[in-house]
Design a protein that fits this description.
- There is one protein chain.
- The chain is α+β, with helices and mostly antiparallel strands.
- Helix content is 29%, strand content 25%.
- The chain contains 12 helices and 20 strands.
- Helix 9 packs across helix 10.
- The two termini are 23 Å apart.
């Protein structure tokens, strides 16, 4: 049998592609695990932050240096298109105050069920526990080898994901196949959207405490490498939350992490406000900090225990506490992968490989990764639609 289309990977990108086909096809999805959409079900703690609201033009900067290269793809198949696709097929959405868009049920399973239903309606079947072990171009199409079986199709779509959460099947093993069999160039693969570990981390006992608007920056050799504003979370062993995760892929051991817990308040303003507040109260410094800057009391008490009763020193720590970075969480904890199929090899309007007609690559398999907030699932949809409509 020669299929019209074979998709490697039954994750978000692969299922968006199979469920978006305009016409009924004879299609096949090869999935190496026992079930589809495992990472999709995990996204947003099971609630599935599917995209973000606002102008699609504002999305470009959320993909870093490669964002401008996917502009046409994102504009054509934008966030409004994704929301309309979901709602037209029975999944209502809700937009939170921070702009994040979720299914109204707050249940990722509703989106997965929709994608599986549409996939079947469009003529695709899914073969589970069928990893792609070898790929070749032949006179009758693209051949994919799995064990003793050979599958052939006119069009082949690579939707195998990256290396993050390898226990879900997204272990990066297909990149080796793409290098070996198709001579594709794969950019450096690194964990992205990860937590960061620092030396002598002092906040393990405060696990669960968060800051809504912190400013976090990475410094190397005395120069600021990156900075990000957003939520910061103290865990039992490291620093997490969007402010850290969105720049984590740039961090290296021995870099330094600077944190302003009360951004946009500067050291000078914090010092002046503390000095004034202390004169007008008999409360201790920890209570003054907690009240004046709306900080968690436990955090303020620990800060004073660690740094003493100097107003100047405490103001400095609130606005620029500094830690040496010891490590960044690996692929087993990273939400996405930075790196993948290098973009210059692709026609980004259709996601087809320039030198390999009929071969397409979408989603996390290509060298695009976004910040938190629904941007990675948006690109999974945009690239999948571009491939499906090719």
């Amino acid at each position: 049998m020669i299929y019209d289309c074979i998709i490697i990977g039954a994750g978000a990108a692969g299922l968006f592609c199979s469920s978006s086909a305009e016409l009924s096809v004879k299609g096949l999805i090869l999935e190496k695990t026992k079930r589809p959409g495992t990472k999709l079900l995990m996204s947003g703690n099971g609630q599935c932050n599917i995209t973000h609201s606002g102008s699609i033009k504002e999305f470009i900067q959320c993909y870093g240096k490669n964002g401008s290269k996917i502009r046409k793809c994102l504009y054509k198949y934008n966030n409004e298109s994704l929301i309309a696709f979901l709602e037209d097929n029975g999944v209502k959405t809700v937009t939170h105050s921070d702009g994040k868009v979720f299914p109204a049920s707050m249940n990722a399973r509703d989106i997965l069920n929709l994608l599986l239903r549409k996939t079947g309606e469009n003529g695709f079947k899914i073969r589970y526990e069928t990893p792609a072990e070898r790929i070749e171009m032949s006179s009758d199409g693209w051949r994919v080898y799995s064990g003793s079986e050979v599958f052939t199709a006119h069009t082949l779509v690579i939707a195998s994901g990256g290396c993050s959460y390898p226990s879900t099947g997204s272990d990066g093993s297909l990149f080796h196949v793409l290098r070996r069999d198709l001579k594709l160039y794969i950019t450096e693969l690194k964990p992205a959207l990860s937590s960061v570990q620092v030396s002598d981390y002092p906040y393990g006992e405060l696990s669960g405490i968060s800051f809504k608007n912190a400013m976090v920056s990475i410094w190397r050799d005395g120069k600021r490498l990156a900075q990000n504003e957003g939520g910061l979370l103290l865990t039992h062993r490291d620093l997490s939350g969007p402010a850290v995760m969105n720049i984590s892929k740039l961090a290296l051991p021995k870099d330094r992490l600077h944190i302003n817990y009360i951004h946009p308040i500067s050291y000078e303003e914090a010092f002046a406000r503390m000095k004034s507040a202390v004169r007008n109260t008999k409360s201790g410094l920890a209570s003054v900090m907690a009240s004046e800057f709306r900080l968690p009391k436990r955090f303020c008490h620990l800060l004073t225990e660690r740094h003493g009763d100097s107003i100047k020193n405490l103001a400095r720590q609130m606005t620029c506490e500094e830690f040496p970075i010891s490590s960044v969480s690996g692929f087993n904890m990273a939400m996405v992968t930075s790196g993948g199929i290098e973009l210059s090899q692709l026609k980004l309007s259709t996601m087809e490989l320039k030198d390999l007609p009929g071969l397409l690559a979408i989603g996390e398999a290509v060298d695009i990764d976004g910040i938190t907030g629904g941007y990675n699932l948006q690109f999974a949809y945009s690239s999948a639609r571009a491939a499906a409509d090719r």
